[in-house]
Structure formats: C-alpha cells, structure tokens
Amino acid sequence: MTAEKERLQDTKWKNWGPYVSNRQWGNVREDYSPNGNAWNYTNHNNAESYAYRWGEEGIAGISDVKQLFCFAFSFWNKKDKIVKERFFGLSNPQGNHGEDIKEIFYYLDNTPTHSYMKMVYKYPINAFPYDDLVDENGRRSKQEPEYEIFDTGIFDNDEYFDIFIEYCKVDHNDILARVTVCNRSQYDAPIVVIPTAWFRNNWKWGYNTYKGQLHASHNGCIDIMHDSISIKKFYSKNTNVQSVFCDNETNTSKLYGIPPTENNYFKDGINDFIIHHGSDSINPEKRGSKASFLIDEMIGAGQCKVFEFRLCPNETEDPFDHFDDIFNTRIAEAEEFYKDVQNDPINEDEKNVQRQAFAGLLWNKQFYHYNIGKWLKGDPNFEAPRNFNEYVRNTEWNHLHNKDIISMPDKWEYPWYATWDLAFHCVPLSIIDAEFAKGQLLLLTKEWYMHPNGQLPAYEWNMSDVNPPVHAWSCFRVFKIDEKNNGKPDLLFLEKVFQKLLLNFTWWVNRKDKNGKNIFGGGFLGLDNIGAFDRNMVLKNGEHLEQADGTSWMAMYALNMMRIAMELAQYYQVYEDMAIKFFEHYLYIAEAMENLGEGTKGLWNEEDGFFYDVLQLENGDSVSLRLRSIVGLIPLFAVEIVDHRLLEKMPNFRSRMEWILKNKPELTKLVSHWDEEGQGRKHLMSILRKNRLTKVLSRMLDEKEFLSSYGIRAMSKVYEENPFVFSAHGKENMVYYTPAESDSRMFGGNSNWRGPIWFPINFLIVESLQRFHYYYGNSLKVELPTGSGDKRNLDEVAQNISKRLCSIFLKDENGQRAFNGGNPKFNYDEHFKDYITFFEYFHGDNGRGVGASHQTGWTATVAKLIKPRLTF
Hints:
Beta-galactosidase, Chain A, domain 5; 6-hairpin_glycosidase_sf; MGH1-like_GH; 6hp_glycosidase-like_sf; Glucosidase; Glc3Man9GlcNAc2 oligosaccharide glucosidase activity
C-alpha cells in the first residue's frame, strides 16, 4: 500500500484539485444573449472584465470541489497589452478550422489525490502575437493549415520563459505552490509573477448575499475569510512584495458604458493597475474578493528563479519551513505510486508517455456547474433577454442541474463533459483511480443528469444530440479492471449502473428505431462530418437514413447489457431473465441488419464485402451509400465471448437459448457460430460470421484503404484521388479522403472524420480483435497488411495496430515523435523533446496531432494500449 493509495481511501484529499477551467468564455452556460451567440456574448477580449456566472478560468488553477475559492497564476512580460491571466485561443468563427488554443503548455505529472501536480507553460518574452494570430487565421481558407503560435516566430532564438508550476499538499487543506521561471533566451528578461486568489461570484445573482473577503494581513500574507473554506491564509515566501485587491465583479462601465458607482474595484482592476500603472482600479484599503501578490523580477539569460507560496488553514510562524522537504517527499511518493502502476516490462520512453497521459487526465478534471432551469429563466437580479422565437439551446433539459467535478475532454477547447468521451476517459482512469472512474460513470445516470425519458446528456452545445451508446461497455470494462486490481467485484456499482442503463436502452428503442424494425438512426452519433451529408438533417419526402453504425452500436449495447446481466446473475439469479432479454434483442438487431424490409438488401454489401449506410426512399426502395468509412467497421464491436462454464451456471438462460436455437433458425443463422464451441469451450456472439469478418478485415488492413502506419484511418484512402459522389434532389455531395483538418464547415468544421486516426474507434478495434482471437485462436489468420502474404492471428493483428497507435507518441529510430508533425524544435530541443501533447485526432498518413491539443481524455487510452495486454 503506497502513500498515495492510502490517501485515496480518504475522500478529503480530493477536496482541492485542478478544478478550474482553462476557458470559461465562449461557452453556452455563460451565454445570456437573445439569439444563442455564445462565442460573442463572452469572448477572450471581455474575459478580463466579465464576472462569470457558472465557473472560473485560470492558468494552472486549483479550487475546492464547490469552487467557492480559486487560486491560479498570471504573468506579465512587460510587453504584452494585457496580463496573461488565461490561455489565449481563437473562437470557432475566428479559426479557419474552428476554435483553437494558441499557446504551448504541457501537463507533466499528477497523482489521483492531487497530492503532487506539475505542468510547464512556455510564455514568450516578447509581446504575445494576439492580433497576428487572429488576422492570419481569419485570412486562411479551410483548405489551408492553421496558423499556430510557433509559426509567428515568437519562439525563434528561444526567446521564451519555461514556467514550471508545481503544487503539493502538506495535508488535505494545506497546499504548497512552487513556480520556477527559466529564461531560455540569451539575454536578461523581466517577468512579473502574479499568484492570484479569488472567490467565485455567487452573490450577485439574487439567491444569496454572502460574500467572502480577502484582505492584507501583514507583509507576504493575505487573509482568506469565508465561512465554508478551510484555507485561511495565503503566503508568499518573498515578503517584500506588493499585495493588490479588487472585486470579482463585472466592469459594467468598460463593457456596457454604465457609469460606475463610488468605490468600485472591478475584476480587471489588477490587470489595469499593472498595465496602466494607475492606482484607482485597486482598493487602497487592501481588501476585496480578488487579490494578488506582484513579484517583479529580472531573470538572467539561461537562468532560473524559484517563487514559493502556501495556502493553509492557520497562522504559521514559518510557513515555508521544510518546504523543499515536503515537495521532495510528495514527488518521491508520486514516483512510488507510478512505479507500482507501471509494473509491466515497458521502456523509459513508454513510461514517460503513459505517465503524461495519466497527468493530462488528472489535470483535465474540472468543476462543472450548469443549472439549465435557472439558465433558461435568468436570475432574479439579471433576467435573461432570451428570444425563444430564435434558437435557444437545451430548452427540453430544464431538469438538468450539474455541479460536480467531472473529467473533461480538454479544459480549453472542450471545457464541458461529453458523454461518449467520458466513457473512454474512465478506462485509463480506472487503472489509477477506479473509484473516481466508477463515480464518473454513475454520475451521468443520476436523475439530475439523465433526462426523464432515459436519454443521457450529450454535451452543453446540444444536450439532445445523440452520442454512440458506449456507457455500458465502459462500465463493464471499468468493473473488470477494478475487480482485477482490487481482488473483488464491486457488484453494487454494476447493479446501480445497469438499472439506469435499462432506461437509456429503452429510450434508444423507443426514440431511435424509426419504424420499429430494430434499425437505429441517431443522426450525429459523434462522428461530425463522416457522411456525404449532415446525418442530423431531416430529409425530404419521408426519406430517412438507416445507419450501419447506429445499428451496430445498438447491437454492441445489447451485448454489453447481456454480459453485465450474466455477471450479476452469478450472484442474483433474477438477472438471468435480463440476460435473456438482451440476448434476444441482439438477435433481432442482427436480423434487421441483414434485411431492412421487403425488397431491400440490408446494410451488408456482399459485392464490396462491407457495411454501408442505407438511404430509404419514400417509394420503399433503398440506396446503399457505398462510402467506405469506419461506419462499416463498427459492426466489429458487436462481439461477445461467453465461456461455457458461465452458461452452466445459468440454467434458465441456457434453456431459453437452446429453445431459440431450435425454434428460430432464421435468427441463429445470423449469429456467428453461437452453437459451436471455440477453443477452450467458448461461445462466440457476433454480427460478423467468419466469412464476413475476413472480408471486412481485408479492407481494414489494406494500406491503400484504412491501414496507416499510425493506426486505422476513419475513411478509406481510395477517396483521395477518386472522391465519393452522391447526388440527391439536384445537389451533388462529394467526399474526399481528408487525412487531417476538416475542409467542411459541417458541425463547425473543427473536427474531421474523413480520414484521420481517432483513438476511441481504434481502441475498440483492438479490443474487438482480441475478443475474436479469444474464440478463434490460431484457426483464423488474415493477411497483415492485405496483399502481403504474411498471415497473422487476430491477437497479433490487434497488437500490431496497438503498436502503430503508440508510435504516434514514442520516439522513432530518428528520435522523432509523429504527433509533432516533423517540427525539429519539438522533436530535438532538450526543452521540448520529451513533452507530450495528446491531441483530439491524428493525421491519417503521418500521425501529426490535429484538433484539440490537450484532449487527454479519450486519447489517454494510449496509456492502456502501452500495457502489454488489455485486461478482460
């Protein structure tokens, strides 16, 4: 039992953590405009002056679990037009590929209780190129690459600071902070380090009036006065520093032209005092709801300086006594914890990548607060001027009230949870903190999250959008990982989540099976622009899209629910009936995929050996949309292997199964050899019979189609030179293989499924191949790559794909990491080469990172792939 594992037994150690968002502006929850223009209502330009309603933002920010009190760091290089209080990036309309952060920082370390945390921010010495980044990206088309901060030349000649920010906990409510500023340039450079404490503004809206206070105590100390906050003192080791105070209140004069009343010291007061050198923006009485120390230093060329701070519950005679010793202890405990986690035979580079993947997951926790009922109405003191005749989001989610610590995809680009993203986050999270992973999965099934009709909320831009139903898969994976690591099954967790997923499964059946034929649409399904047209679009004349992936996801969902029920039936016999229900449901879905109705050919195309979406026409005819994408690979995921010994423990299930095999041969013939035992007396349940499986894999493992050096592409490469064309209603829809950024504005144009490599899909491919191998063993081998003549069993194929995915991050024989896109600075410079960013997706041909740069959520599944074997 390591020290960190012991701390995990005490929930108080998580009362403080990195729960502050990297961006609160430009989010739906802060949008009170009449027409739902979230990107303009709050934006980067007014963020310094606007007091938020639902949460806070900052650089390396920490807070308590209710985010009553926040702490973060700001910096000023004495050349910028504003203090660097928040990371800068482009809004969705500004970027030629949607919203995009324009900063360089890396999450280096973190423990599950946040007893130790470390990140590094690369802050330019010269004036930050805000206008250049906005203007140049605004000029570029969607066919051109994004203009990144590195492209501006601001990092030429190493004219930047490496700012290392570390936290460690003395106790659960006693926190040390250390900032190490290293000047990487060849000349001395000034910097102002600005540690900032503030209270989230929850007093101005009309529900309560209690307001915490910060005020100067003595040199180097600020008192924290709040009846719900255990931390009472904020210390700076350098006592010869100035403390400045203002209020976390909107500057209505600056933003709206409202004349100020007497003694107003607004949120931007500290910024204005530093930049404009005036004293009327800060409170001369040295009190307020926002306060900073101003530490003005010159950093010598190639030199580093260290700055130390403490947040603690009591007056302390020497708050920095044993400061370095405590840090060293926590660092040693973090090493001990991860040594225990990384107990597989992996090399140092693999350990580094895996460790930073875990760090990113933990840094991307966020306090997420959004009460849609209140948001729609507005607050007593601030009515919302909504024009409900125009588009207002989430009106049907009036019940939703979120106020929790949640794993985010990316706290800048996606600072809101996404249901199917979160399911993937929880798998690697379960390796280091299974209780948190299980809690996250349960959270989304709570009645104040889940819709009364059973739908899970998608994400705040449209809670009603439909994501792939992977929650049950994740729950069972997390359950099994937790059981293996802790030596006992958490049946209460599994039972709780199963009961709620019954409601969600019923919602899918009632809402997304358009004609009651077990063929499921779903529209968006998280794949943005993968189709020839917007799959959320309402088609004309009663036409509708039968989605191969929607139906396959539901087949997978049915099998996941069957497997969970079978697990529970080992302890509670009543669940045998539920296992039977989902077994039969799965069979009906398999039948539907084969035959959509009289006169139709189903989703399988025998000529191509692939699954396709089908467009159902008003006259009853159907058109197969023969676009080869991962839509046709998703049927691989609907696979389950059941050990015969498990069946013997379930006599009712076995009896019902045998009845179906005998009396409904039209169903059982569609399922791959359920009645034939594979190696070790195992039974296979899969939509893909052996013949079809080999045909699909032949496509998937073809380097001219899906197989890349870095994983499985989201769309076949054949469309690079020969685009797919589909004409409907006089409009020609054309799809090219696009291996990186999107060339379409569909769904905002900030992500692309027409060629890149996406980790969630690849992760499921790897798992599914291992399941097939578990049944077939060496009796089934396929060419890898297709046409090579080199035959491999499916486990070898899975491991090969896994290695390709890992190679995106690992150094190759030339010392390059593919995600860096060939940038020599990132690959070889000693201050960059071992730092990892976990992008949203990756270039289909060269592995370059694309999209959200810190989406350590589902891309952190690489931490699981690095382990030699996945856990079943």
